[in-house]
Inverse folding.
């Protein structure tokens, strides 16, 4: 599966736009809809096509289905707060191997994008600190992933002003569109190791209904995201299985 992800991502993108447009129920009833079957298992929310795709990718490399948790079942303790409900968590043999968040942004880019940034930075800082403090012992360092699907339209391509009453804003944010700002968030979280990998996907409500999407940054492609996730998880499962077999 991981060598042929283009059509799989297209299905998840199409599911997002169809569900946002109120057509998700029809897709859940379609026997030919892979995105519909995946999302139905998870409840059929807008980003569940991606959650189902990640689950399929993990199962394809040998992760048992009952080790892949979603939503309420993916609730984990934190360090700065008591708990957090992740979108997906991989818990294998009582060890935390990975967590993933799936986010989207299709309107109200101003305040909502700031909220997304604060949320992502806070969530990732919290779980990494929880790991460092031994909350998940004897788990290895968990793989942390962040996926953003953003609408590519006139609003998201507009350039908002910046306020500088006291200090200058980072030059990279000046003259940056909302799309640019989200791309900066994703790549900086990767570079600062707040996440192991991030995926940044653009689409719009017209061609997105046909599954069309584009990825503006090679470092943030879904294929890299998936390969990084499976390499980490598969490696940890092999280590644990080998350790069990030697006892």
């Amino acid at each position: 599966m991981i060598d042929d992800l283009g059509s799989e991502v297209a299905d998840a993108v199409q599911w997002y736009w169809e569900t946002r447009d109120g057509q998700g129920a029809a897709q859940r009833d379609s026997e030919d809809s892979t995105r519909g079957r995946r999302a139905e298992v998870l409840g059929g929310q807008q980003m569940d096509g991606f959650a189902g795709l990640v689950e399929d990718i993990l199962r394809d490399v040998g992760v048992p289905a009952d080790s892949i948790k979603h939503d309420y079942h993916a609730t984990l303790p934190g360090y700065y707060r008591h708990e957090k409900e992740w979108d997906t968590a991989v818990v294998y043999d009582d060890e935390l191997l990975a967590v993933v968040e799936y986010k989207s942004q299709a309107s109200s880019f101003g305040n909502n994008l700031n909220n997304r940034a604060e949320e992502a930075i806070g969530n990732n800082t919290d779980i990494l600190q929880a790991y460092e403090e031994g909350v998940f012992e004897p788990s290895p360092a968990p793989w942390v992933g962040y996926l953003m699907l953003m609408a590519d339209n006139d609003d998201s391509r507009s350039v908002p002003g910046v306020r500088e009453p006291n200090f200058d804003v980072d030059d990279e944010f000046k003259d940056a569109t909302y799309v640019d700002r989200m791309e900066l968030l994703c790549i900086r979280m990767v570079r600062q190791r707040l996440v192991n990998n991030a995926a940044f996907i653009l689409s719009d409500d017209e061609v997105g209904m046909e599954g069309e999407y584009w990825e503006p940054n090679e470092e943030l492609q879904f294929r890299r995201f998936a390969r990084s996730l499976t390499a980490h998880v598969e490696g940890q499962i092999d280590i644990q299985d080998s350790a069990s077999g030697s006892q």
